[in-house]
Amino acid sequence: MKIFGEGIATKSKSGQILEVYFPNIEFDNKKTNTKSVEIDSTNYQIIKLDWTETNLKNPIKTVIDAYFKLHLLSNKFVLPNTINLDGLFEALPNVVWTNKGPISIDEIEERLNKSKSDKNDLYIRSLDKFPCLTDYIIPNKVRIADASRVRLGAYLSEGTTIMHEGFVNFNAGTLGKAMIEGRISAGVIIGDNSDLGGGSSTMGTLSGGNNTKISIGKNCLLGANSGIGISLGDDCIVEAGLYITAGTKVTIIDKDNRDNFVKARELSGKSNLLYIRDSLSGKVIAKINKSKSSLNKILHEND
To answer: I need a labelling partner for 147 at 20 to 30 A (CA). Which of 38, 158, 267, 282 fits?
Structure first.
């Protein structure tokens, strides 16, 4: 496997690399661009990389490594959770992201003072290690209502619609058409024809040392303000407002209306389940899902 990248690094006055844009990537004969990269300023640097599969397996050591791997994810050359991202946070500097591009934390005060005394045309969008996806890559046939809520490193398949409250972290995303009005946390992948309702949430791999990879299968629905800390197979529904963690005690009702108790982790990844909470007893119940979730095809053509 041969992987070639050519990009432009933005540097601070002190020479620190703040970010890298890779418009030209060739991944096993698949290309993102063929235009030559040119620069006309000492604040920029041409970057060229020749990688192999070994580099994908190695931890991240530099800002350049980090941005190249994030570009590979968002250009859909590699799937989430398939490359080594160890060292990512250590390698990325905290950057002031502005309408004038990335600015070093050490230099923002000077730039703000100059702007205030001149045109006052500088505004700060965020202070973060990660930039927005759309500052670098415009995914094909995807709608994003609020671009600030999708990070570089998100993997978005054609037909994905992300509404204003939807959020997609790096190393996470969709494997087909999807409606995202909730949160896709780091490490989480969403299957084709699935819907994350408004305010819904998925547990990622960043907080609390959690190493469990959460996934949602095809034709699933997370109701508004619901959440999961387990994986869902295909054709599953979680009712609105119900949050299921791995330790949640679930009453299973089988086809003969018999029930027994299990912890939710024992149901992780199983298909055709409807998760609800009994409004009288408060019990969380899982039973066979007899209804099927379907997206509005018109909403997800995204041409």
So the answer is: 38
